[in-house]
Specification:
Blueprint lengths: L1 H25 L2 H13 L4 H12 L2 H12 L5 H17 L3 H9 L8 H14 L3 H12 L11 H14 L3 H18 L2 H17 L3 H15 L5 H17 L3 H132 L3 H32 L7 E5 H10 L2 H7 L2 E5 L5 E5 H18 L5 E8 L5 E8 L6 H8 L15 H13 L3 E7 L3 E9 L8
Helix pairs in contact: 1-9, 1-11, 1-13, 2-3, 3-4, 3-5, 4-5, 5-6, 6-7, 7-8, 8-9, 9-10, 9-11, 10-11, 11-12, 12-13, 13-14, 14-15, 15-20, 16-18, 18-20
Length: 581
């Protein structure tokens, strides 16, 4: 087991600093943006400007040269800090950790990204096996909140802390940090970091001779490594599994993992060679492209004269094209006007067709009802059934009243559709309007034994057109009476609206109510009349009410419980102190 411990411990420790530096590369957008701004701000200092340019291009040799030149001059604290940061990062990327540490340490606390400096120092100390010193820096960074803009993740800092404690033999603290960082990585679904954490946790348990806990973590690391494209991680995971199986005396599987390890190692070496070859090809391609550019410059000078001759011809053609485009657009504009007028005409024809359809359907129903009622009257009269005759006369009166309301609604709907209605919106005493609208229905309600309750404050004032508001109230009362059973009651009252500048007028009945589907159909925004179902429904009246209320800057809402009744809610504006809505 000692062989396994040494190999696995080496693989795991080497894995994390690579991940830490790689993460810094992928999360430095904020830093790079700031560096670009500083480069523009100090553009008059050529060495600093070149150092910042090479830093963004990751050409570290050039970065170190020009940043050193800048540091040899008299600089402001800001320029000095950025120059040292450039130089320190270049040293770190080149593997010169002692030099990088010196430059990082010389940066002042006023540096814009000082926390990244402290994090980099901690990583270098961890790389140099100076674990006690590294712990101080990681603990300082651990206190910061986990934020992508900062350029690091707290989970990685906790992981580094765990490694330091592991090297120092402080296993309890190492376990706490590693598992805390592991939980964050698992929540963030950071697969690469999770692989390293599994291997480090396994090493922690192996160091304490807890094989039963260590081996499952090596297996988890191996399985996860199959899902990533990091050859180094795949190589380390396979090597760990080979050693695990050798210690188990499973030499068949150990050989399999050894072969896999060697395959990944060869792939990694081949990839590095491919990258080197690609870099050479890139430089050669750049040189070739520069030759082509020089040749093109010469050709462009020759072609410039030809282009100048074409300019005059092009100008004349552009003028002709502009004239043609103008006339073409004028033609399109005229066509649009014609299409718009045609659409309006089609809408008017559709309105006319709807009107004829309503007249033919609803009037036929009403006249048919009157005809049937008259036949019943004659029958009762001939049979001298005077009580039935009296009831039938009341029924005929209701049919006549309903027919009148239908004709009145049709007339007003036609006026609205043809835009012949006149609205005079003014402050109105609501109580008087309601009393006038309800007066014509007193006899009908008494005949059905319906109690009418009007609870309108005398001072209630709304901003609306008087005649159109009466029409809306008559339609609401007519529907309430129609669907309220004998002995029921209808109540008209006011309540405060959600908007303090508006008032709700409520007409509540104890009728048959409406389902949610019917309410949705009634309130749907549409110019098409609602289809009646089974001889009942909203029909023309409520559609007319909706249109009129919109003209009065109002709205209609409905609350209903099937079998218990309906409340129609009319919302109208209240006049302000100056008399305006």
């Amino acid at each position: 087991m000692k062989v396994l411990l040494n190999i696995c411990f080496l693989c795991t420790v080497l894995c994390l600093p690579v991940l830490a530096f790689a993460q810094a590369d992928t999360t430095t957008l904020l830093l790079n943006k700031a560096i670009k701004q500083k480069g523009v701000l100090h553009k008059k200092q050529p060495d600093f400007y070149k150092a910042h340019t090479f830093f963004l291009a990751k050409e570290w040799d050039s970065v170190m040269v020009y940043s050193m030149r800048q540091l040899q001059k008299d600089n402001t604290k800001e320029v000095e800090d950025y120059s040292r940061y450039f130089r320190a990062t270049g040293f770190a990327r080149k593997g010169l950790l002692d030099e990088a540490l010196k430059e990082y340490t010389a940066i002042s606390p006023g540096f814009d990204f000082y926390y990244k400096v402290r994090l980099s120092i901690g990583e270098i100390l961890l790389e140099q096996n100076k674990f006690n010193a590294a712990i101080q820096y990681f603990k300082e960074i651990e206190k910061l909140q986990d934020a992508p803009a900062l350029g690091f993740k707290v989970s990685s800092v906790l992981h580094n802390l765990g490694l330091c404690y592991l090297h120092l033999g402080r296993f309890n603290e190492a376990e706490q940090c590693l598992f805390k960082g592991f939980a964050m990585q698992e929540q963030a679904k950071d697969t690469l970091a999770l692989i390293g954490s599994y291997m480090d946790i396994a090493t922690l348990y192996y160091e304490q001779y807890q094989d039963d806990k260590a081996i499952p973590n090596f297996i988890q690391a191996y399985e996860l490594s199959k899902k990533v494209n990091d050859f180094a991680l795949k190589q380390n995971a396979a090597l760990n599994m080979a050693v695990v199986e050798e210690n188990r005396n499973n030499f068949k599987y150990a050989l399999k993992y050894r072969k896999e390890y060697e395959a990944w190692r060869d792939s990694l070496n081949n990839r590095n060679k491919v990258w080197e070859l690609a870099e050479l090809e890139k430089k050669f391609a750049v040189a070739q492209k520069q030759k082509e550019v020089n040749q093109l410059v010469s050709e462009n000078k020759v072609k410039k004269a030809e282009r100048d001759r074409l300019v005059y011809t092009s100008g004349i053609l552009l003028v002709l094209i502009a004239v043609l485009i103008y006339f073409y657009r004028q033609k399109i504009k005229i066509n649009h006007i014609i299409e718009s007028q045609r659409a309006k005409l089609n809408n008017l024809n559709a309105a006319k067709d709807r009107l004829f359809s309503i007249v033919s359907h609803d009037l036929r129903s009403s006249v048919s009802a009157l005809k049937s009622s008259n036949a019943t009257l004659l029958q009762h009269f001939e049979n001298k059934e005077y009580e039935a005759l009296d009831r039938q006369l009341h029924n005929s009166g209701e049919i006549a009243n309903s027919t009148y309301n239908l004709l009145d609604n049709l007339l007003n709907w036609a006026l609205l559709q043809t835009k012949q209605s006149y609205f005079c919106i003014e402050p109105l005493r609501l109580a008087a309007i309601v009393q006038q609208a309800a007066y014509n229905y007193t006899a009908i309600m008494q005949g059905k034994g319906i109690q009418l309750i009007i609870d309108i404050p005398a001072k209630a004032v709304v901003f609306a057109d008087s005649e159109s508001l009466k029409l809306v109230l008559r339609n609401m009362l007519d529907n309430a009476i129609k669907y309220t059973t004998v002995g029921g009651h209808i109540k008209i009252y006011t309540e405060d609206a959600e908007n303090s500048n508006s008032m709700n007028i409520c007409i509540s009945d104890t009728g048959s109510g409406m389902t949610a589907e019917v309410i949705e159909e009634v309130l749907k925004e549409s110019e098409v009349l609602i289809n009646k179902k089974n001889g009942s429904g909203a029909g023309l009246g409520l559609q007319l009410c909706k249109s009129i209320l919109q003209k009065n800057n109002g709205a209609l809402a409905i609350k209903s419980v099937p079998g218990k009744g309906t409340t129609m809610i009319i919302t109208l504006q209240k006049p302000h102190k100056n008399g305006q809505a």
